[in-house]
Amino acid sequence: MTETVIKTDKLTKRFGDFIATNGITFEVHKGEIFGFLGANGAGKTTAMRMLCGLSKPSSGSAQVAGFDVYKQTEQIKRNIGYMSQKFSLYEDLTVVENIRFFGGIYGLSNADIKTKSESLLAQLGMESEAKKLVGSLPLGWKQKLSFSVAVLHRPKIVFLDEPTGGVDPVTRRQFWNLIYAAAQDGITIFVTTHYMDEAEYCNRISIMVDGKIEALDTPRALKQRYNTTTMDDVFYQLARGAKRSE
């Protein structure tokens, strides 16, 4: 994991007098599962929107897949996948119609879409659901399908914004198995979550508190540094320390 696919330097986003993302600096490497952790309102989604080319930074710099977030947003969008906390497929289309639709948006040929559709359905065990409306599926199936469609075109990076919100623990584990498989295939995973236990699944994590990155390292190194066995306690100590310094 030596190739840098995301690089930021003092990246900042202001909304009037409010600083949502405050001078964040970090790098993410190819094939890495990078956890972007923090409580709700810490600035995670704001940072992700800037990296996806959906929101212009107020200051600082960033490159995603080799492209500048100020000047090359369309190139960024062509080289990434994205899945939001809110389910992002069309519920009034069938499973296979969604796959074909997004495959077309991603510029895949009809032959590739057919092959990838069959492979995806087999991988998820959803062959019998292919012609069912997505809106009729259980939430866990929807989330796994949404992730699989987000990486259908083999993007360099896939951004996942709170992808496991509202799903049961078993489905969360199955979802992370899909993430591991994508990372092993060379896709970089950038995932935001407020579930501290999910940090254990990442190669490295950053922890945001009030718009700032307060820590960045492997889960093991962070637990050693803060003399604890859980990421929940690491986060608690960081949040408490930030509040004391205000």
Automatic annotation (TrEMBL):
<protein>
    <submittedName>
        <fullName>ABC-2 type transport system ATP-binding protein</fullName>
    </submittedName>
</protein>
<dbReference type="GO" id="GO:0005524">
    <property type="term" value="F:ATP binding"/>
</dbReference>
<dbReference type="InterPro" id="IPR027417">
    <property type="entry name" value="P-loop_NTPase"/>
</dbReference>
<feature type="domain" description="ABC transporter">
    <location>
        <begin position="6"/>
        <end position="235"/>
    </location>
</feature>
<dbReference type="InterPro" id="IPR003593">
    <property type="entry name" value="AAA+_ATPase"/>
</dbReference>
<keyword id="KW-0067">ATP-binding</keyword>
<keyword id="KW-0547">Nucleotide-binding</keyword>
<dbReference type="GO" id="GO:0016887">
    <property type="term" value="F:ATP hydrolysis activity"/>
</dbReference>
<dbReference type="InterPro" id="IPR003439">
    <property type="entry name" value="ABC_transporter-like_ATP-bd"/>
</dbReference>
<dbReference type="Pfam" id="PF00005">
    <property type="entry name" value="ABC_tran"/>
</dbReference>
